[in-house]
Write a structure and sequence with these properties.
204 residues, alpha/beta, ten-stranded mixed beta sheet, two-stranded antiparallel sheet, binds NADP nicotinamide-adenine-dinucleotide phosphate
Length: 204
């Protein structure tokens, strides 16, 4: 599968390394265009290419990995969505990554806001609850699999992302809808930044 990324920073690069290891391809994009991404794709290696945002969004699965404050403008600039899966890896912090000033998002989950700004996309919340060093670490440690959480309103899209995560080596826990599961796994929720490993039989 070819997966696009909107954003080419820490989360997008860690995600790219992980899915490249699972033999998928990645089209990585930012706001400055493919020429600015030469060094990053060369470091990511085989299977990674630099793309325009339009090129990345044309993939059947796309990771959103931009700072929270940039989300509305980023999504507004993209071409119309045509049923692609949009993985929402974003967390609601103001300012640059590493500045953990929480953004007020009212009583919706952040993924519900993302879904409202991306009509036509099938939004799945995933990858946001792991910090980059954890995403870069092997998902299997001492015979146990790292748990990854997902939430979505579209069951088919959720299943597809679950399969992607399982391909990467994770044990996946489905937290339910974008609202209920989103609130549990997004920053500020009880599972954000918590790490679990599952031993024993690999649950499918
Ligand atoms: N870092 C983590 O451990 C981690 C873990 C889980 C979730 N997250 C979440 O993931 C998101 C990204 O975090 P990060 O750490 O990857 O941030 P980052 O390293 O600052 O990277 C942000 C990326 O977004 C791109 N970008 C900004 N505006 C854009 C636009 N309009 N169109 C396309 N690309 C745009 C930037 O590219 P330009 O050069 O074009 O500005 C940059 O490549 C945040 O919401 C964060 O909360 C981060």
């Amino acid at each position: 599968m070819e997966i696009g990324t909107i954003g080419a920073g820490d989360l997008a690069q860690a995600f790219a390394k992980r899915v490249l290891k699972a033999r998928h391809k990645v089209k990585i994009s930012n706001s400055r265009g493919p020429d600015s991404l030469r060094e990053i794709v060369s470091q990511l290696g085989r299977g990674a290419t630099a793309a325009t945002r339009e090129g990345a969004v044309a993939c059947e699965m796309v990771l959103l990995a931009v700072p929270w404050d940039n989300v509305p403008e980023t999504l507004a600039r993209l071409p119309k969505w045509n049923n692609q899966i949009l993985i929402d890896g974003v967390n609601p912090f103001h300012g640059k990554a590493g500045n953990f000033t929480p953004a007020n998002v009212g009583n919706l989950s952040t993924s519900q806001l993302v879904a409202a700004l991306a009509p036509g996309a099938r939004v799945v919340k995933a990858f946001n609850h792991m910090l980059v060093p954890n995403l870069e670490a092997d998902p299997v440690a001492n015979g146990a699999r790292r748990v990854a959480f997902i939430s979505a309103d579209d069951d088919n899209a959720k299943k597809r992302v679950q399969t992607l995560l399982e391909n990467c080596g994770y044990s996946v826990v489905d937290l339910g809808s974008l609202r209920d599961g989103g609130l549990i796994q997004q920053a500020g929720g009880p599972l954000a930044g918590r790490y679990f490993f599952e031993r024993g039989e690999y649950h499918k």
